[in-house]
Structure formats: structure tokens, C-alpha cells
Specification:
The complex is a heterodimer. Chain A is built from 8 helices and no strands. Chain A is mostly helical. Chain A has a single domain (11-204), classed as Up-down Bundle (Four Helix Bundle (Hemerythrin (Met), subunit A)). Classes of the chains: A mainly alpha, B mainly alpha. Chains A and B meet through helix 2, helix 4 and helix 8 of A and helix 1, helix 2 and helix 3 of B.
């Protein structure tokens, strides 16, 4: 097999290894958020009533819309990979574009959600936060930290996908070399994966 | 060429997967409107687990990946569940 490859492969590339590397990175991300979920669960157990009352402050509608937007974008990014594998450059561009649009919609929703809270004086370090009792304080601190860290991941994912978008456009990313889009898509699915747990924990279980 | 071994998933399959995920989201929202305490929490987290598995299996191509990678992913979740269980035992019996 190596002899066979020596004739055909002019560049050194190992897609399997880059994907494995991406997965290992995803493991660290999962455990990072896993740790936060654990902290959330323990405090939820200890300050049950406060967490219950606080979670009623969140809009389930906005949360549900964002869930659907993220699930949809997860599908379109997977479709962009299918398109590039089929050497359909135009469709790949459209699907990455839709994914980026969904990401933007998610962030706009998040902006209004956070904006509402901040408008009412509820943000980390605010006077209102200092007046809250321990349970409410912990809930909103965790809410801002976890959704904030998640939003940061959305932004990083968007940057990755924008890079993919330009590479597809310049045909550097094509049906023979698409591991970057594969890894970008994996990262985007991770963002979706985290939200799948964040949504019921933060918005629904009240 | 040894590269590009990734399986191509058809658009139709991906669409069906999305519909299933949307349905499960709807079920989660409906279930959590019944306030049955621990039962509701367990149900919501179980469904989230199913959704996560579907996303990893189909969207993240885990279905077509090597056994090694699939075992590694499973191990991460086993590790996390162990951490959660041990921490909760600690809080329950201290």
C-alpha cells in the first residue's frame, strides 16, 4: 500500500489523523462543559427553589427557537460536506452560507435575551446581582457564564466556517481535500451538542 | 488514495435525522411542562442523551468511523457519568 501511495501522493496528508486530533480536542471541550453542568447540577440540588424561580425568568420560546435554529444549522453544515464530497461547489457554498446565517440568527436572539436581562440591571457584577440571595445569584452567574461560553464557541465556529467558505470559493477545499470542512463541521456539531444539554437544563427544568 | 475515506451521507438521510431531532425537542418541551420532579429531570436528560447520540452518530459521521474512535467517544461519556455519580455520592453522604 505504501508503494502504491508513493506513486500517487505528492503531498503529506493524513486526514484520519487530523480528524482524530479534532475529536481529541472535542473531548476536552465536552469535559469543560461537563464540569460546568456538574457545578450547575450540584447547586440546583442545593438551591432548588431559587433555581426554579430563576429559570422562570428565561423565555422558553426564545430558547426553543434557538434550539431549532442550531439543529437546522447542524444539518446544513453536514449537507455542505455531502455537497463537497459530490464535487458540488455551488451547493456547498450555499449550505455553509445558510449555516452562517443560522449562527447569526442564534447570536441575535441571544443578544435580545441578554439585552433584556442587562436592561433590567441583571448582569454579572451589577448592583441587582449583589442584592440577590445566594441561590438566585448562582443561577444567573452560571446562566451568563455557560451561555456566554457557548456563544463564544458559536463565534469561533463561525470564523472556522468563514475560512472554509473562502477556501471552497478558491477551490482549495474540494472533493479531494476537504478535511478542513470536516473538522469545521465537527466543531459546529459540538456547539449543537452542548446546546442540546444546555436548553433543557437552563430553560425547561423549572 | 488512502485519504478521503469519509462516507458520504445523502441529503435525504440528513433531513430525516433533523426531523427526528426536532420531534425529540418538541417531546422534551412537552414532557417538562409536567412537573413530576426527578422523573421529569430524568426524562429530559435521557432525551437529550438520545439527541446527542443521534447528532454524533449521523451528523458527526460516527456511524462510519473506526471502532477505536467510537470506543474513545463512549469512554469520554462513561468518564463524565462516573465523575457525576461519584460527586453526587459525595454530596449525598457527607
Amino acid at each position: 500500500m505504501s508503494e502504491h501511495n508513493a506513486i500517487h501522493v505528492e503531498e503529506h496528508r493524513d486526514d484520519e489523523a487530523s480528524k482524530l486530533g479534532m475529536w481529541l480536542f472535542i473531548f476536552t471541550e465536552l469535559l469543560l462543559f461537563g464540569g460546568l453542568f456538574l457545578v450547575y447540577s450540584i447547586f440546583r440540588m442545593q438551591y432548588h427553589t431559587a433555581f426554579h424561580e430563576s429559570s422562570l425568568e428565561l423565555s422558553v420560546t426564545i430558547g426553543a427557537i434557538n434550539t431549532i435554529v442550531l439543529l437546522f444549522s447542524s444539518m446544513t453544515v453536514a449537507m455542505s460536506l455531502t455537497a463537497i464530497q459530490k464535487n458540488d461547489q455551488k451547493r456547498a457554498l450555499i449550505f455553509i452560507g445558510i449555516t452562517l446565517f443560522c449562527a447569526a440568527v442564534f447570536l441575535v436572539n441571544k443578544y435580545f435575551e441578554w439585552g433584556g436581562k442587562i436592561h433590567h440591571g441583571l448582569y454579572p457584577g451589577s448592583e441587582l446581582m449583589a442584592l440577590l440571595d445566594r441561590g438566585h445569584h448562582l443561577y444567573f452567574s452560571l446562566y451568563f457564564f455557560m451561555t456566554g461560553l457557548h456563544a463564544l464557541h458559536i463565534i469561533i465556529g463561525m470564523i472556522l466556517l468563514i475560512v472554509c467558505l473562502f477556501k471552497v470559493k478558491s477551490k482549495n477545499l474540494n472533493n479531494k481535500d476537504y478535511v478542513l470542512l470536516e473538522n469545521g463541521a465537527l466543531y459546529w456539531h459540538l456547539v449543537d451538542l452542548i446546546w442540546i444539554f444546555l436548553f433543557p437544563l437552563m430553560y425547561l427544568l423549572s | 488514495m488512502a485519504n478521503n475515506t469519509t462516507h458520504t451521507i445523502e441529503y435525504k438521510t440528513l433531513s430525516i435525522v433533523l426531523l427526528v431531532l426536532m420531534f425529540l425537542t418538541f417531546v422534551t418541551i412537552e414532557i417538562t411542562s409536567f412537573h413530576l420532579g426527578a422523573l421529569t429531570v430524568t426524562a429530559a436528560l435521557l432525551i437529550a442523551g438520545v439527541k446527542a447520540t443521534i447528532v454524533m452518530y449521523h451528523f458527526m459521521h460516527l456511524k462510519y468511523e473506526s471502532l477505536l474512535l467510537r470506543i474513545l467517544v463512549a469512554m469520554v461519556f462513561v468518564l463524565f457519568i462516573l465523575i457525576v455519580v461519584i460527586t453526587f455520592i459525595d454530596y449525598a453522604f457527607r
